[in-house]
Structures are given as structure tokens and as C-alpha cells.
């Protein structure tokens, strides 16, 4: 078993070793890679020519150092090679062993820990067993004792404990066995692991030795690396020294060039100054001319304004005279109308109809006059057109040839004939215009009233009356008679017949379609004439029912007045399945005199579409009318019902039976009944008893005779007496007089007023109902004072009677309340019937009944409801109850209170005797206690605090009872002080602390209060703590505490109420004596202007010079320790929004010293106030815009509808005002939501600020600034934590800050006092003008502060004096000298206050980013063609850059630069000429677009470079400069390009020709000459250098490029062919080419790689040079001689 376990553990160890082996293999590979560079380094050092290839210019001393360092390095490498390095497999084994050993150690530690835990458990278990054994022994002893004593209960308890201990002991023994077994197993495992550790001890020792050796190897390798780095550093130092020498030489040359440039610039500047003076003189002349022109223009404008003013005044006078004339005319017309009314009334005619007819006649006369004027204008227009045609024909005759004139002679004759006819027609119409208009345009109606005529056809303001619709056919006939001769002859003439068309012009297909259309038209016409319609079927569904629906379904004119005009609009909706149409047929015959319909046929209507119909009703008779409006549709006829109803009275009662219930004889009860008129007509009413029912019915135990119920008592109504005869009703019809109202008033306004009246009346009626229900009892009490019941000795008493209102007038849509009074006199049931009759015969009488029950008791209480009003808890209240007796004998009474309230209420005496027909008094005592809500139960309402207590009076002999009710409102007498405790905190002796206390009266009665016995350091305000609190009122009291010395205070304040109740308020405070004090705790600033500054000074004093508390008061907190004597620090903390600045805000004061403090006050306007004003101004601007638009709309409406009456104008204007106000309120609310979106820099915000500053009336504010105090000097704590200060020593400074309006304000830029120059390029100057105004009534003399003399700001033009209201301008300039923000303040001083201007600007260094680097290669281009390339420049700065592009080839100094030594004669390092080959034609080779402009901040600009060479050259070049603001060169690009005469080129290697062309122009050979002659000499030679690094396996490489240019000049069938000659020699010398021959497509480049490996017989000191010939075949044949130069170089030799 153990062997198996051991084998399993070995397998697990091998599995766990696998990943570690893989990691070690990776590390071994890494170590092998590290060793390779060391071997390479060793080879490089062993090269024979390695030391010889060094820099020959280096000094000998440096060479000696490098040689010595190399020798030492070789020595180190030799020692390292002698060391035996560990193999990778050995390293892997060592790492795996190391990991296994760590794992074994960890496992061993775990096993030891488990063994310890098992041993601890075993020891604890054994201790537990020993304890249980002891307990068993003790229990056995106790059992023996108890057995001996005979205590059975204790014996049973001890036996149970013995059994429990035995079971626990057994369990512990079992647990001990288990723990012993586990301990043995853990010990065995631990021993196995220890044996394993013993096996690996030898390996562990070997592993430590290997690690030490490896560490030594690492150290040696580190030394070698350090030596190598030192050698490299020495070489770098040598190179740096050589570079510095070159830089110095180049700098000297640059300085010389700079001097020359400065001299040139001076000469150019002198020339420019001359030109500038001339140009400035021309500009001044031009400005003078412009000023003269502007003055002349202003004079012309002034004259125009003056003429306009005179014309306005004249127009006003004319308008005034016209208005006076119109008023006189209207007054005259009104007088004439009144006379006409009186005449008509005298004759007995109908006033409304006659006046209406008279107005219609006047309108007709106006229309006739307008028609005559229209005919005259038409005549003039026709004559002018004829004259124009004549002139046109005359011109046409002159221009056209004679032949065309002969051909068109017939047509001209016809036109002349028509013209003559037109003249004749015009003459006739002008002679008979009056008769023609009366006959043609007016059509009288047969069914209209006498003298009434219809309106003209052309009238748009009035609607077409209905009678015209039925006379439509007759009008057409009359129109045909009168308009037989057309107004313009032409198509209507007999000679010109459209139906006579030649047969040649007619197509048979067109004839067929025309015939079909004609048949369809005739068929439809026949259907409409006969009234036969076909079914409408759409999508297989037949349309059934009415195809048009009306909204509303019935046209109802209700409650109309005679003489008014009412209009209603209905909508007809096509409810069919397809297209349909409808036309108006007419209305019912009996409605034609009153109803007119205006309907414009809409034509074909799709399904679901609608059209409108306007129905006008003008009632002439006060009768109800009914009829219908008839229409005709495609599917049949349909109609819309019409109803007109007169005003009616619709009367109703809210109830028909009034039940008074059961009441005691002698009481008086009242109820009401409501009479409601829901109609639009009022009437008179009268309430009386039912006719023929003069008695009431009573049901009692004994049959009693009937008793009459009269209408009124003699005491109630003195004017009328009741008659025994029945009441007769006489209903008289009154003459209805309708008010004369204007006939133009529309029904819409009338309906709106009617609806408003209905709603107001209904609301009023409902309010009356609610009030009558609520105050029925109060009405009853008031009526009892006036109504009394007196019974006559002969008649029985009347118990149910009417109130005051028995007759009167009930208006339309109103309600009248009728009162009934029940006075029970005899026990039993009572019933009375009443009837309401009306003067209107159409109203039927209304009946209602009243019933009640009377109860007889021999004892009654005159006041059964005892009201104790408002009572307080724990207060005694008394009242006297009087009891009346109507019995003829003495009665014994018992008085009872309900059990629930027996503790709180008492009746004295509890029993008593009442004499016959006398009274008895009972004393009621009520003492409410706080337990009343719990005891009373349902009799007490806790919410309303109302108590209703039932009292009972028992008649002992007759077993009857009388019920009484006691009402009271119980309230408390508490005064609540909130909070109940006040802690004033820590209060210094230099200040007073205020705390707020709320005193609340919990009672519903007013209570007086007062705080008494106040200590001297406490004050209560207002009114010194005395006053009266109303019911449930809360009063806030200010309790002011001022400590007189440093100690702890604890006291109570007593508040007494009116009933001598006391309420305590406990107070605590701690007096503090701070170590510092302020010379002034209150600072009152002078009146300071907005944005101005006022300053005040005070001192912080330290009077604490000694710690002796016996000589003077020592600074301390309460009863604490005294403050230390020494320097004391302070700090003022100013709130955020406070316009106050304190300097210094932090400091320290030595004992006996004081520190000066300066307080500055700078008032500003609140941000919220400015935002509200900005919103208000925006709303005002929007409101004015809305008013202008509404005025325009009103003017248009008044122009169109001039006949609207005065009443309608008033109502419409009221509606417009209401709509306007709603619009403005909605606009204001929307703008108010946007107030938070206003930015402080916006124009609206700044304009509002300027407006508020001008209209600022003044402001006074108070601020309290805390000053924190800490012991110690603040300088001593620099660099450490803050000083620890006590908040209780805090001092407070109170500031009174009055603010006033400024004298001088800024008017430019919406009143901004901050002048922001924005982003300005460094070195540029910007000017700004600032306008200031004197808004004070005094003359001001201004002074200015001095700006920073070294700063960029400069006050160019100041202002000395400002008159009241005068505006003047300041000029300030800004010229930054570096890239940063600049700030400065300019103060403008006046006698009273100052204005501060904040100057700010940002100097920005212009910066750009170009998409192209330092060079832009345009490639190869055919001579005479163009190549383009695009690059982008982005503005990365924050301002707009003004740029210009310059080329060196176009430089004005290029001619002078060309006089120098040619650049090809100097070395490449000394060359400064970037302009290469140029065109022969004088034009620039490179051109760029655009050449100048602006780039906005953050934007970019694309530039197009065009390369256009005119001859062949490979060295076209130029330099492009991007210049910003005409001064700074921001970017330089070297432009390169090559041009060929033929579309082929070879590129690569080192060019062997001169990059500068000769001055002589050599024309290239043409292509034909080149083809004829054979090129024996190569055109160009190329040198290709290949360098082979010694010791490397890779060959030396180089590259050649063969390209074909994409062009349209040469039409090549094939691509470019190339081939190399002399390849065997190249291969023999070790050269290899990727492609010996091939083809290149047009626009492509072929890259040919060349590689070289030195042959075996190659000598390193002798470079190899081999020549080969490259032949190109395109449009011509070209050959290139390629020189291949190969050499071997060492790895460290510098390459050229």
C-alpha cells in the first residue's frame, strides 16, 4: 500500500515538473541568443583591418585610449571564454530541483501545522474529559448526601445531571479516539515528507554552488558591456567636437549674410517711405472728397425730412377736417334716421323693415355708382389697348416686306372690322349704363317682402339671399337677353365658328373619342334633368343610405329675437365610396322669407372630403319655424332639417313635497323650495294656496275639525288682508317691445353673450342654493323676529305658512327661492297644498305640498340648544336653563346628564318642582378636563373640537322627557415655545448673539403673554417680550444674549399667560474673551457707484500682554484655561457672492501691537436681476412685434369689412386684446424658461446690464465677515499644516454698503467694461475705441490712471471733459511682444466716483502644420505637359492667419544673387542656392494656387502645385516659403521635378553629371532624327555602388528604376522594353540582376535589384568596377552606361 502511494506521488511530481521544464527550455534558448552577439562582437574585434578603418581625423591620444580599452576588453573576453558555461539541460535540471525543493518545504510546513492542530485538539479533549470526570465525582458525592437527607427533588435533579455527564464523557472518549487516529495519519505523512527532503539534500548543495557560478558569469559580462559603452562614448565625443566646428563656421557665414540683408532692407525702407507719403496724400484727398459727398447727402436727407414733416402736418390737418366732416355727416344721418323712425311710428308701420329697405336702396345706389365708374375705367383701358395694338401694327407693317403685307391683308381687314364693332359696343354701354346695370345686375325676388331687393352679384361682404337661388333660371335668361352682344368680340362672333372644322384637320381617332365623350355628357345631363340616378358601386360594395352627412345634423336657431341676423355654418361630408358632388336645390317654401343659404359648389369631392354651407336667418315674425335645406347629389337627393324656436319659459321646482318632520308645539321651523327658469324668457309668478282646497288635512287620535291654512298672517304682511273668497287668476298678455338693434350684428356674438349669461345665471343659482341650505337656521332666526303667529279665538291656528316672497319676477336662466314656515300649535299631522301661477299663458301652474307633525309636551324649554361658545380646559363655565310649564298642576322634574360626561358637566339641582304655568331655572356647570376627548366618545369631535352633549328633563309623574343639547367648542390654553431649549453657543464679549423662538397659541381664543424677570444680559424683542397672540397664531421672538465676561451661563426665561400659567424656556451660553479685538466692529462705506471701489481702514489689536488674571480680564473660552501670551494670527473669510475685499486677509499680531486692515467695497448688479431684465426686454420686443402684426391684420380686416357695427367692433377688439394678452403671457413664460440659457457675454445680457446701471436708484446691504483667530505666528508654520484655531474666538466685522448709479458709463459694445482685444499676433498692433457717456446732471472732469509702461497696452487718445449727457471716445491700442495673456486696468476718475476698464488681450504666436515635409518631388513629366500635386496647411493657432506663398525663383533679389559664384563650383555644404533649372520661355516652372489668403483658426487650406517644364532636364528645383502676415516664414518646402522629351527614364545610383545647366540653349534632337541615326555613345552614365560588409552572409544590394511616363503625346502600342548587355562579365565578377530584360507599362516603374557577393579571388584593398549597357526601346532607342562599383567594408567602418 505504501509502495503504491509512493509511486503515485512520483507521477504527480513528474507531471508538475513538465511546465517548469518548458519554461527552462525557453530560458535556455534566450541565453543562447544572448551569447550570439558576444560572438559577433568577438569576430569584429579580430578583423585585421578593423582598427585601420577608424576616423583618420581623430587625435592620437584618443587612439591610444581606444587601443588600450580594446586590449583590456579582449583580455576580459579571453577570461570569459576560459570559464565553463552551464549547459541548457543542466540549467533546466537545476531549476526543476529548486522548484521541487520549495514545494517539499511548503508541504512539510503544512503537515507540521496540521499535526500541531491535531495535538491541540487532543489536549483540549483530554482536559474536557478530566473536567467531566471531576463533575461526575462531585455529583456522586451530592447524590449520596441527598439520599441521606431524603430530598427527592434534588436527588432526581442530580441523577439527571449524572446521566447527562456520562453521555458527554462517552462522546468525548469517542472524539478522543478519532483525533488520535488522525494524529497518527498526519505524523506518518510528515515523516514521509522528511525522508524525501533527506534525499534531496546533496542536490540542494550542488544547486547553490551552480547559482554562485552563474552569478559570477553575469558580473563578468556586465563589465564587458561597460567597457564597450565607454569606447562608444569616446567616439561620440570626437564626432560632437567636429560638428561644433562646422556649426561655428556656418554661423559666421550666416551673420555676414544677415548684415547684407539689413543694408538691403534699409534701402528698400527709404524707397517705401517715399511711395507711402505719395499714397497717403492721395488717400487724404479721397477722404476729403468722400466727406464732402457725405455732407451733401446729409443736407439732402435733412431737406427731405423737413418736407416730410410739413406734409405730415398738412395731412394731419386734412385728416382732422375729414374726421370733423364725417362726424357731422354721421350726426346728420342719425338725425335723419331718428326723424324717419318717428314718422314711421306715427304712421303705424314696422320700423325695422322700413329702415332695412331704406338701407338696401342706399346700398344699391352706391353699387350703381361704382358700376358706372367701373365701366368708365374699362372703356379707358380698352381704348388704350386698341391704341397700343394700332401702334404695334404700324411698326409691324414698316418692318415686314410687301409680300407678307399682301398675304395678311385679309386678316387685318377682319381685325379692323372687330375693332369697329368694339367701338360701337363701348358707345352703347356708356349711353345706357344706368339702365343696363339696373336690368342686368339686379333681380327682384317674387317671394321677398314688399320693397325688398337682392344685393348685387359682385358684392362680397353680404351673403346671397335665398330667393336668388330659385330665380336662377330667370336671371340667366335675362342675362342672355341683355348680354347678347359681348364686351370683347372675338370667339363669340358669328363669323368665327369653332365647330366648323375642315375634314382634313380632323383625325378619325379624335372624332371617335369626341363622340364617346359627347354621349357620356348627354347621358349624365339626362340623368340630372329626369332625376333618375344609378347605383354607386365601388369595390363590389353598393353605397346605401345617405351619401352626405351633415355636421351638425340639424340646423337649430333657438331663442331668437326679431330684427337680428343669425348665421350658422354646417359641414357636408362625402360618406360614399367614391367621387361624388352635390348642389343646392333650395329650402322649404315657407322659409324663403327668413332663410338664405350661401353655398359654393366644390365640384367633384373624393370620399371623406367635406365642404361648408352658411345658413343666414333673419326673423321677421316671433314664431317657431321648421323646414329643411335640400341638396342634390350624384346618387340622389338629401336634405338637412332646419328649426327656428322662439324664446320660452321653462319652469320647474326642485321638489314637490316638503317634509318638516316632528317638532314640539311652540317651535318655529323654516325650509325653502327653488323655482328655476331654464328658458330664455322671463315672467311674473304668484304663490297661493291650492284653488278649492282651502283647508288642510290633519290626522290625530281624536277626529278634529278641518282648519284653514291661509296665505299670510296679519303680522307678517301688513299691506294685504286675507279674503275668504277663492283666489281668481287673471293672466294678461303684455305687449312685447323688442329693442331696436343694429342689423349687422352677427349671431355668433349673440350666442356667445347668451352662453355667458346662461353660465353666470346657473352659477349664481347654484351659489344661492348652497347658501340657502347652509344658512337655513340663520334665516329662520331672522324671520322669527318679524313673523309671529297669533291665533284668533274663533278660528283654529294656521301652522304652515309662506315666507316673505309670494310673488315677483323670475328672469331668464335664473332661480328664485321660496320660504315655508312651520309653527306647530296643536299635536298631530299637518298638510298644506300650494300652487304657483304665472303671467305667461304658455306656462302651466306648478303645485307642491308641505307636511309636518306636532308633538305636545307639558314642559318645554324656550332655548333647547344651549351654546357655551368656546371653553378652555380646567376652567369653570356656568349657564342658566329656563324651563317653562304649560300644565295646570305642579310637576316633579329630574335633570340628567349622560354618563360619559358626568365628570365634566353637572346640573344643579338634580330634581325640582315646577309650579303650574310658571318657569323653573336650573344651573349648568361645565368644567372640562384634559380627559374629555377620551371620556366623551362620540359626543366629541377631535378634529373640529366641537362637543355636543344631550341633556334630559324627565317628568316623573307622566313618564315623559324633554331633550336638550349643550354645544361647546373645547380648546386648550397652552402656549408652545419652540424650541424648548436654546443654546446660544459661544459668544464673545464684543458681540451679541440672537436666537429665534416661535411662540404658538394652541388655543382658538386670543391670549396675552409676557416674559417676566429677565436677567440684565438678555433682551427680548419685539415689544420687550409682551403682546397678544390671536387664535392659533405663531409669533417669532428674537432673544438677544450679550455676554459681559468669559464664563458659562445657564438660566431660565419665564413666560406668563393671561390666566397666570407659566411656561419655561431654558437657555445656555458660554462667554468668550478672544485674544484679539477689532478697532471697529462696524464699517459704514460712503455711497459707492456700481463697479466702483470704496475703501476703509481698521486695526486688529492684541491687548493680551500678561497672563495674570487678577490685574485684568484674561482671554479665555468660558471657564477654560487662559490664552498664551505671544503672537496671535488672524484670517478674514469673505463669503462667495459678497462684493467686499479685505487685505491683508491673513496676518499675525504681536502682544501690545496692532495690524492695519484695508476693506474694499466694489458693488455690482446681481446676475439674476440682469437675467430677468434681459428676459423682460426680449418679451417687450416680441410684444411690440406681435402688436405690429395684429395692427396690420386689423387694418386689413377693417378695409375688407367696413360695414361692421360699433358693438361688433368693440367685441372683436376685446377679443383681440384678450388673445394678445394670452399670446404675450405665453411668450413671456417661454422666454422666462430661456432666462437660464442667457450667457453673460451675450448682447441681450450686456444691454440689460447697461440699462439697469443707467436706471439704478440705489441699494443698501449689510454683510457680516468672520475673522478667525489662532495662537502662534503664521510665518512659523510655513511648509507645515495650518494653524489650529478655535472657532469660538471668532470675531465678526459688520459692513454697511450703500451702492449708487455711476456718473460715467460705457456706451460702446452694449456697455461692456471689459475691453477684450482677443487673439492678436505677436508684433502686430490693434486699436479699439471705447465710447463713454456722462449720465450725471453735472459737468465732469476726467482723470486716468497710468498703464504699465512695459506692457502692451497704450492709451492713445484720452478725454479731458464731459458735459451732461455727452458721449466721447477713448482709443486704446494693444501690441503684444510674446505669446501669452496680458491684463491691465485703466481707471477713469471723476470728482465723486471712478470707472474701471479691464483691458485684456492674448498674444498668439502663429503656428501651422503642413502635410508635406521639407521636400515635394513632382516626379517625371513630359516636356510641354503639366503635373500637379496637392498639399494641405492647417492652422493650429487660435487666430485667423493671413498667409502668402513665395517662390525663390520669383524673388526680387534673385538677379543680385545670381552675380555670386556659381553654386556648382562650391562644396555641397556651402551651397545656399535652391533654385535649379528654369524654363527657357521665362515662365516659372513651378506655380502654386492660391498664393495668398486667410486660414481660420482650426481650419485648413489646400494648395495645388503645378509643374510645367518646357525643356528636358532632371534638375528642376525651387524653394517655396509660407509667409505669415508678410513677416514670418512659417514653413519651407523644396520643390523638385524632372522632365523628359520621351516617355522613358532610368533612375538610381550616383549621378555623374553637373546639376546646373549651361547658359546656352541646346535643342534636343527630334524623334525622327533619333530613329534615323544610331546612338553609338551612351546618353548618360550612372554609377551604382555596392558595399559588402565583411563577415556577413547577406550580399550587397542596390536598385535601379526603369519607368515609362504616362502621356497622351506618344501613342505606343506596346510598353517600354529594356535589356542589359555585358551580363556574363557581371556574373563572373559576382554581380546578379533580378531582371535582365523586360517590359514596363505606361505609368509604371520597374525596380531592378542588383546584388553582389565578392568572389574568391577578390582583394579587399582593390575596389571592383564593371561596366554594362542598358538599352531602352520606346518611341526611340536610348542607351545608358551603368558603372557597377563594388567594395568590401568592415562592420565598424564609417560609410560615406
Account of the protein in words:
The strands form 19 sheets. Strands 23, 25, 27, 29, 30 and 31 form a 6-stranded mixed sheet that branches. Strands 33, 35, 37, 39, 40 and 45 form a 6-stranded mixed sheet that branches. Strands 42, 43, 46, 48, 50 and 51 form a 6-stranded mixed sheet that branches. A hairpin with a 3-residue loop joins strand 69 and strand 70 (1528-1540). The two termini are 80 Å apart. The protein is an alpha+beta fold and 1696 residues long. Helix 3 packs antiparallel against helix 4, helix 6 (351-399) packs across helix 9 and helix 16 (1167-1200) crosses helix 18 (1243-1254). The chain is built from 21 helices and 80 strands. The N terminus is likely disordered. It is extended, with a radius of gyration of 62 Å.
Q: Topology of this structure?
A:
Elements: H1 2-46, H2 60-82, H3 88-149, H4 152-199, H5 201-347, H6 351-399, H7 402-407, H8 409-431, H9 433-440, H10 466-470, H11 472-482, H12 508-530, E1 537-538, E2 541-542, E3 548-551, E4 555-558, E5 566-574, E6 582-587, E7 595-598, E8 610-617, E9 625-633, E10 636-645, E11 651-653, E12 657-664, E13 669-677, E14 683-689, E15 695-696, E16 707-708, H13 747-774, H14 776-786, E17 800-802, E18 807-810, E19 814-822, E20 828-838, E21 846-855, E22 859-860, E23 865-872, E24 877-885, E25 891-897, E26 905-908, E27 911-914, E28 919-926, H15 932-936, E29 940-941, E30 946-955, E31 960-971, E32 975-978, E33 981-988, E34 993-1001, E35 1007-1012, E36 1018-1021, E37 1026-1029, E38 1034-1041, E39 1048-1057, E40 1062-1073, E41 1077-1078, E42 1082-1084, E43 1088-1089, E44 1094-1101, E45 1116-1117, E46 1128-1132, E47 1140-1143, E48 1146-1149, E49 1154-1161, H16 1167-1200, H17 1206-1233, H18 1243-1254, E50 1259-1271, E51 1291-1300, E52 1304-1306, E53 1314-1321, E54 1326-1334, E55 1340-1341, E56 1343-1344, E57 1353-1357, E58 1361-1362, E59 1367-1374, E60 1381-1389, E61 1394-1404, E62 1408-1410, ...
Parallel strand pairs: 4-10, 12-21, 23-31, 33-40, 42-51, 43-51, 53-61, 63-70, 73-80
Antiparallel strand pairs: 1-2, 3-5, 5-8, 6-9, 7-8, 9-10, 11-13, 13-19, 14-18, 14-20, 15-16, 17-19, 20-21, 22-24, 24-28, 25-27, 25-30, 26-28, 29-30, 30-31, 32-34, 34-38, 35-37, 35-39, 36-38, 39-40, 40-45, 41-44, 44-49, 46-48, 46-50, 47-49, 50-51, 52-54, 54-59, 55-58, 56-60, 57-59, 60-61, 62-64, ...
Helix pairs in contact: 1-3, 2-5, 3-4, 3-5, 6-8, 6-9, 16-17, 16-18
